[in-house]
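User: My advisor asked me to double-check a structure prediction for MHS family MFS transporter before group meeting. I don't want to rely on an old file, so could you generate it fresh from this sequence?
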Amino acid sequence: MNEHSPAKNSVRRILAASLIGTTIEFFDFYIYATAAVLVFPKLFFPAVDPTSSTLESLATFALAFFARPLGAAIFGHFGDRKGRKATLVAALMTMGPSTVAIGLLPGYQSIGIAAPLLLALFRFGQGLGLGGEWGGAVLLATENAPEGKKAWYGMFPQLGAPIGFLLSTGIFFMLSKLMTDADFLNYGWRIPFIASAVLVWLGLFIRLRITETPEFMKVVDNNTRVKVPVAEVFTKNTKAITLGTLITITTFLLFYLMTVFTLSWGTNALHIPKATFLVMQMVSMLFFGIGIPLSSVIADKYGRNRMLMIATVAIILFGLVFAPLFSTGNVFVTATFLSLGMFLMGLTYGPIGTALAEIFPASVRYTGASLAFTLAGILGASLTPYLATTLATKYGLAYVGYYLSVASFVTLLALLAARPLMKVK
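Assistant: Sure, here is a fresh prediction for MHS family MFS transporter from the sequence you gave:
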């Protein structure tokens, strides 16, 4: 049928829908991460010790990562039972209102303990929505991809990460330049949260116009849908969900070390001006964006597993030079460090979606890929800013690098064990 074989315009629409959706979702997610370092410690977690306030704020940041597997299970169930399109719309409409609500939330001085409690609730909503967003966006792209280009198609939703980060960081940078610190803390930080409503509407408009993926339609036509996809994943695809989770740990750990932790440590411990550090992070995102398509081309030519192994070995080595590169306080050295780390991030992030999708059968692929990705978020990212700050404070920056190298070695072992599951060339 024609609708099962989209024309060129339909393919472009599908890729645009996968890209715009993840861009919006990551934009929402990153403005929280930035605010968790720059604003929330003062507004929602007042304490005598600034470090304690920051750690409490980062704890709410971690909350979303524990909500994401629940979102993956819920949205994955409907994605495997009812279809990718409708589920993606629902995921977007879960995260978007949560983000806007954060922008409208009064501070601790206005409503007391209710402020951090509501912040935690809305943060949970963000995580719930993103748990169902990512897997569906990847499948929307890869299940429409021709043979030999699955990693290339699968990198379009991955590009939403650097684009979303650039948008969110760029807005915070402009606001910090246009406003006094007092005005920014009073109301300026709310602007990107509330403005995300416009982006959600745009994403909704695009996604309502897409068609269902051919591979899901085959599942429907062949009557192979399973009643409880999450049970099927853990009982019949145990190896895939375990190795898929371990394979993705390093991706999360590296990203949140290079964004949330470095922003906090760089502006507080190294005393680099906030605006300067945000500019350096935006530059590093360009290298992140370069690494994603580069790794995807290599992954299509030589195999997803091989590309991921190369990237993981490079990250192990990067962990060993983490402290020397990030302890000088020199702007040029720090910018080089951030750019190198984010380039490596692009190399591992580009093919990871395609790699996770292809180790699960189509009947449980939405649930399986989403759960592997989100469970890795708990292990590799949820407490990373908190643990890294604790390690750096008590033992020094070198131990943050060791933390990264050890986790990367675990990922390398998982990649070796997962070779039979992947389409190794």
